[in-house]
Amino acid sequence: MKRLLAALVRFFSARAIGLGQKQFWGGMLLMAMLASPSTARAQASGTVSGRLLDAATNEPLPFAGVVLLRATDSSFVAGAQTLETGAFVIEKVPFGSYVLRASVVGYCPGQRAVALTAAAPTLQLGPLRLRVAATKLAEVVVKGERAIVTDNLDKKVIDVTKDLTATVGTAVDVLQNVPSVTVDQSGAVSLRGSTNVRIFVDGKPTGVTLAQLPASSIQTIEVVTNIVLKKERQDGWNGQASATAGTGQKYNTSLGLNYHKGKVNVFGSYDFRDDWRTGYGSVRQRTTRADTTVVLNQDRTSVSQGISHAVRLGLDYALTPDQTLTLTVQPRFNTQDNRVNILSTQTNLSTGATPPLGNAAVTSPTLAPRSRPISASTTAACGPRRSAAS
After folding, report:
1. Tens digit of pLDDT for each residue in 142-153?
2. CB 31 within 8 A of CB 38
3. Which phi-psi region, left, alpha or beta, contains residue 58 (left: φ > 0; alpha: ψ -120 to 50)?
4. CA distance 6 to 286
């Protein structure tokens, strides 16, 4: 277009002397018509620039969004993103009235009215400052749960209260679920294969067998192995009661009460357990002597019922924050009935004879339950106090 206008100017200038006045002004009008559209288009848009800063520190705000919206309907026209220095430039903006809006995460949005005209096509806004958005929270509550297993430098603590199955049975059933601890059928405890294990209850040696300790009274187990019984530490009265039943005729009920006031803590509990266990065994024996072969088949069925009543009464007195005097009485009454049925057959394969062997039903100690006190002890200990929580 520029080359065409230049050629027309040279053409009319060279022939201006030979042309009439009418022809000369007609040529100039043609050049004006050719030049006016491009000039109008070049002057129909402008530029908006500025810089975003933090209102408090005057630090630049990089990577913020800046947009121009029409003042009439808030429709989007153009936009840009600030540089690391906070500067922005929006080019080729048609003349008109707009609202410039700037936003960045963590700051209140800012806006300013701007207008671009043919008289002022370039608008330099200078620094625009945004305030930090402050959010006031009414309340923040952070909740956490104690882990079932906690590994410390010198011991592993298992929170028994997290295991619902640990509320049924005795300490034997609880220990069977403890990692690295094994309990055999006779109640003997081994730790990582070693039977050289000592059992402490609340940090003190005990003569009570694990089968006499109800599972519902256990708070935590510490390996190396310290069974910590539950003691409420809140002032006033506290109590808990539970009743559980398991498959194979296993029943357990417990009741615990506690009164805590200042340095004095009085506690008591009662547990009842009715536990049935069934066992099966068989013997297949073949004996050959000379020309005689004898075959013995024996089937054995055993049923045992254990009933336990356990009472625990005690008093704690806190001498110092780290020293506690404890007095406890723990009477227990247990009965154990064992019934064994043995069915035996013996056959002489040489003669075919089957002599009677006198099959028997054996009951120990008697068919009727008999109660006897297992243990009743009073202990006084002064030592580091064990917390009821792990």
Report:
1. 777 767 777 766
2. no
3. left
4. 129
